[in-house]
Amino acid sequence: MSDYSPDSVSEIKNFIDGNDQKEIILRRIIEYEENNEPSSTFEDRVDGADWEPGSDVSMSPSYIGMFKNAPFIQTVFDSNSSTVLALESLSDAKEALEESEEEPDEWSEDWLKDQLGGNKVDEVLEDVSISKSEKEEIEDITHGTDALDYWSEYIAPDLKYRDRAKKAVLIMLASPQDAYGNKGRVNILAYGPPGTGKTVIKNYLVSKFNAESIDGPRVSKADITYNKSSDEFGQLPKAHKGMLVVEESDEMDEEPLGAALTSLGESGEVEIRDKTIPAEAQGVFLSNFNSVQAAQNQWSMEAVNRFDFTIHFDRLSDEQKDNTLEWHYKHFRQPKPNEKEGFMMKYLKLCRSYEPEIDELEEIQEYKADNLDAIENIREGLSIMNIAWIIARLNLEDMKLDHYIQAYDMLDSK
């Protein structure tokens, strides 16, 4: 008797694996066992009827060998002239066949939906509950202060003296999906020497929000798009509607960099097997560039323009370094305190459900016109508007001129 796995349904589905001939044969075996009584010819047998593939089904010796060696098949009798087989479990075989028929065809729209990633922030927040009193408390806090200043303190609590970076991450976490031809996703390029805290951002997004993460110097285009040998999607499709963090992005080869930047852009897609696959990722690229100009020189101005925020991680002063180390020494090999993390998650869920109206569009248009010289291109102008809308969402109020000015100032300082 064969070694039988308790997960027989999965084994049978994996055995079929889209092979039409195997599916036809399995269907014929099921029909045969359903319509025939078990034979007493052989002592070592199971509940189903004895099945002789050579006479019952027209199949090549190679397929007889495949089924004979399958873990869900019992070889009742085998000789040079005759082979008698039986299913270990008729019910499991029927269930596997039914599930296989229900699964969408490979590369169909439904199949792709199953393969692609999803909004990991929403998934993390799905089980977060907010009571009426908690909602009122969050609204009181948010309306009584600058929400971006207040709530960004609870982003990546290990990271010290990086207020603008923490605010940018909070804006990214509160950003909407693309809609009506407008990109709601937010991208961040962090640059500066090693040891300045950039990796803390990666660790926070990966551990708390299941962001996809890759190591720039060691990644190929196949790794992040589609690996033919393993028939698996890479990080870009997996980061669809989610986040992708790239460490040492300045050392990425040209092909994977190009694919990643395309995913971050307005189109939000990658080319796989001559097909255009959705990959609307939000990107956090960590790099060792010493300036934005260096990034533009190595990549291009167009590439750098895909990032809403470019944030310099400079070296801390001695006082800042001492205070940071003092905090880490105090909590060495202990859980780092973040007493309002759970409450911040409730706030994030609440604000992500808020859809601000644009309340002062005429005033915003006037301010934009007065400061048009400082807006380098259309992409940057749309980015300012998007960030302003997100800041309004973070404040749980409709979008006003003050939000636009705040967004303008944040992006102008890049």
CATH homologous superfamily grouping of the largest domain: P-loop containing nucleotide triphosphate hydrolases
CATH architecture of the largest domain: 3-Layer(aba) Sandwich
How are the strands of the largest sheet arranged? 4-7-10-3-11
- The average pLDDT score comes to 88
What is the number of strand segments?
A: 11
CATH topology term of the largest domain: Rossmann fold
Biggest β-sheet, characterized?
A: 5 strands, parallel
Give the termini separation. 70 Å
Under the CATH scheme, which class of the largest domain?
Alpha Beta
Shape from CA axes? elongated
Share of helical residues = 40-55%
Low-confidence stretches: 1-6, 40-49
Estimated structural class: alpha/beta
What does this structure look like?
Strands 4-7-10-3-11 form a 5-stranded parallel beta sheet, sandwiched between helices. Strands 1-2 form a two-stranded antiparallel sheet. Strands 5-6 form a two-stranded antiparallel sheet. It is built from 21 helices and 11 strands. It has 414 residues and is of the alpha/beta class. It has 3 domains: 8-103, Arc Repressor Mutant, subunit A (Orthogonal Bundle); 120-338, Rossmann fold (3-Layer(aba) Sandwich); 354-414. The radius of gyration is 29 Å and the shape is elongated. Mean pLDDT is 88; it is low at 1-6 and 40-49.
